[in-house]
Amino acid sequence: MKSISIGLLGLGTVGCGVVKIVQNHQDKLMHQIGCPVEVKKALVLDVNKERGVDLARIVLTENPHDVISDSEIDIIVEVMGGIEETKKYLMEALSNGKHVVTANKDLMALYGPELLAKASANQCDLFYEASVAGGIPILRSLVDGLASDRITKMMGIVNGTTNFILTKMSKEQRSFLDVLKEAQDLGFAESDPAADVEGLDAARKMAILSTLGFSMDIHLNDVKVEGITKVSNEDIVYAKQFGYVMKLIGIAHRQGEKVEVSVQPTLLEEDHPLASVHDEYNAVYVYGEAVGETMFYGPGAGSLPTATAVVSDLVGVMKNMRLGVNGNSAVLPQFEKQLKSDEEIQAKYFIRILIEDSVGVMANITSIFASHGVSLEKILQKPLSSSQQAEIVLVTHGAVQKDFTCIIEELTNLHSIQSIKSYYRVEGEI
Amino acid sequence: MKSISIGLLGLGTVGCGVVKIVQNHQDKLMHQIGCPVEVKKALVLDVNKERGVDLARIVLTENPHDVISDSEIDIIVEVMGGIEETKKYLMEALSNGKHVVTANKDLMALYGPELLAKASANQCDLFYEASVAGGIPILRSLVDGLASDRITKMMGIVNGTTNFILTKMSKEQRSFLDVLKEAQDLGFAESDPAADVEGLDAARKMAILSTLGFSMDIHLNDVKVEGITKVSNEDIVYAKQFGYVMKLIGIAHRQGEKVEVSVQPTLLEEDHPLASVHDEYNAVYVYGEAVGETMFYGPGAGSLPTATAVVSDLVGVMKNMRLGVNGNSAVLPQFEKQLKSDEEIQAKYFIRILIEDSVGVMANITSIFASHGVSLEKILQKPLSSSQQAEIVLVTHGAVQKDFTCIIEELTNLHSIQSIKSYYRVEGEI
């Protein structure tokens, strides 16, 4: 029986996980596909490096063309990362009629549509489940499981590093920098943590999720991004008093024909399903018109979880090969992209302000909100000991983003306000 | 362009949901499938009944053969319920070359393998996502999303009625019968609630889940079942003191080649992802060797959520029709069924005992545990006011089921013990 041959681009953490799963679960794979499957070659930076997996039957090479032009290789698994160079390899592999499975969110967020079109033109499959939320089969669930529904909202905790940091900050009342350091020591955060803590990694995943969920070509640049570097412990403590939990949330919301996609530190109602997603776990909450609320939870990263998603995609490709129907899975976007303007985005906000504790301040503040038609849901005023100052925490009802921006500007100019300490979006109601 | 025709068996809550989704989401369906789809006929008990959906283009009939023998109908959607008669119709429909989508857990738990074999023999698809956990795409996730992994444990809150009742009992400290009554008034529980509260409904779903997850032909009779009718409010209150939440949990556990499948009221560690699944929601927690912990959460019942799963299955069938590859999706069980004996099942237990408060009782009790090699993790003794009695609550470390049964028997015979009030399995550690 002819076996199916796989070529790996990259043999790091995820690549080694793929090798392990293909070796350890060979029986299950063979039962499903009907023939053996083997990793034939792997592109590496250094063929002599020790990797802790059995590489006896795998040819290692430092030349990408040894892999992407090998006529015996059926499927390319791309787990090397990188963007421009990697794209070139994959376009070439697809031209060579090879199916592709990738875990590369950076690449898919930027060049997904182009790569998918290339795959389609060459009757090849291009699957990328592992690019979003590691081991959670969320892309399939959007495309197949909820195929009949109209998805109107997705909220995702799609970055494990920031969720780990915020969980620790909340539970142990420690500062951002302090916990970041620990996360780096534990290997949960990169030595250059910018892509994680500035929200870019989450934004890439939200671009991919919203493209699929809304059937619209959402680009990374369409995603508004704000990271967690300014989140303070006081914010978390005050939020808790109001029944909120601080999370870095990717929000994709469709109303009528228009959508918004953003990533920002967000205060979630504590009984929302996402509020109990702790540590480095990921979860994607999906609201569909017919199905209502669903949530998909699991590990967002890590060698074996991510490799599970890659190999499950491989199974998909191989089943299609058996049936001779590769290259038919991708559904092109159904709708023109229409992004909401600042006048169309509506949200609740939490604001923390430091004031001089004098007559009429609260009246001044609340009248600014009122003049923009924004009403307040919760108010807390607390004198600060040993000073003439007080802190005010407010939670608005739904406010148009443009109005809210004006309110912040006017508050900043108010004499009796010392400073606006912070403000966050509030989510959790449907 | 030729449209695809659907015949409905049954036009109750779910059937009407299917009609609504097919009508309302016609654009999305057409975009995915490439041709229109319409419900052509529906089998009903009474053609004159008012149903609140647009039936203008649907032929209603009281004769099943009008539907299953109609040569223009491509796909049969079975949402009528029932077992023997329904099976006959579906076998006939499959013989007629019609694909089948069903939401019928009773049928699939009993005759799934037989129906799937029939479908396969006739090159037909038979999909049944809606039979487990309503709107949650859990069957697909097991079969496709986690295709490459070896699943070792599944725990499910797969019955909305009992989860609603236990949530209310916990939050409002009310009795089982009191909350059951309310659930019946609200329409969350049937007037004959036995199948739900005795655990049978959950057992059916666990048979289906474990058959797929373990690739083994698990029959309903293989599932040990215990319902929630004996759960008392005191149990819930004591459990809470120990950090546990009471849930009706379906447990499917594989160790080596052997499996156990059961449904019982279970005490979950309060930080377990399933512990925060409240009200009528369902969730399935899946542990895979490679992926680790995942959880799938959503509505377990209801007209539109269940219909979403049905119509998503329809999309799957129709995509296969377009590609000409129907009848290839079902993977036959890979393994011979091997059930664990009572000597192979291990679990932690919570036990609540009423004793005479006299010298040496605790020593007697603990020595019974010790003599069976079972050690204790937590102990609480509490005097009861106005009597010479005390309550003891114990939590064991892992105990072999057979030993635990002996322990309960010996405790029952101990003079100083007034009664064993209750005992429950404890879960939540991996």
CATH fold description of the largest domain in chain A: Dihydrodipicolinate Reductase, domain 2
Greatest contact between two chains: A-B, 60 and 60 residues
- What would you give as the CATH superfamily of the largest domain in chain A? Dihydrodipicolinate Reductase, domain 2
Biggest sheet record of chain A: 11 strands, mixed
Query: Low-confidence spans of chain A: pLDDT under 50, at least 5 residues?
Result: none
Number of domains of chain A: 3
Helix and strand topology:
The structure is a homodimer of 430-residue chains.
Chain A: E1 4-9, H1 13-24, H2 26-33, E2 37-43, E3 59-61, H3 64-68, E4 75-78, H4 84-95, E5 99-102, H5 105-121, E6 126-127, H6 138-145, E7 151-157, H7 160-172, H8 176-186, H9 194-197, H10 200-214, E8 224-225, H11 233-241, E9 244-255, E10 258-269, E11 281-288, E12 292-299, H12 303-323, E13 346-356, H13 361-371, E14 376-383, E15 389-396, E16 399-400, H14 401-413, E17 417-427
Parallel strand pairs in A: 1-2, 1-4, 2-3, 4-5, 5-6, 8-10, 10-17
Antiparallel strand pairs in A: 7-9, 7-11, 9-10, 11-12, 13-15, 13-16, 13-17, 14-15
Helix pairs in contact in A: 1-12, 4-5, 5-10, 7-8
Question: How would you sum up this structure, described in words?
Answer:
The structure is a homodimer of 430-residue chains. Chain A is an alpha/beta fold. The first copy, chain A, folds into 3 domains: 149 residues, NAD(P)-binding Rossmann-like Domain (Rossmann fold, 3-Layer(aba) Sandwich), CATH 3.40.50.720; 162 residues, Dihydrodipicolinate Reductase, domain 2, CATH 3.30.360; 82 residues, ACT domain (Alpha-Beta Plaits, 2-Layer Sandwich), CATH 3.30.70.260. Chain A contains 14 helices and 17 strands. In chain A, the strands form 2 sheets. In chain A, strands 7, 8, 9, 10, 11, 12, 13, 14, 15, 16 and 17 form an 11-stranded mixed sheet that branches. In chain A, strands 3-2-1-4-5-6 form a 6-stranded parallel sheet, sandwiched between helices. Chain A is elongated and about 85 Å long. The model of chain A has no long low-confidence stretch (mean pLDDT 95). Strand 12 of chain A pairs antiparallel with strand 12 of chain B, so a sheet runs across the interface.
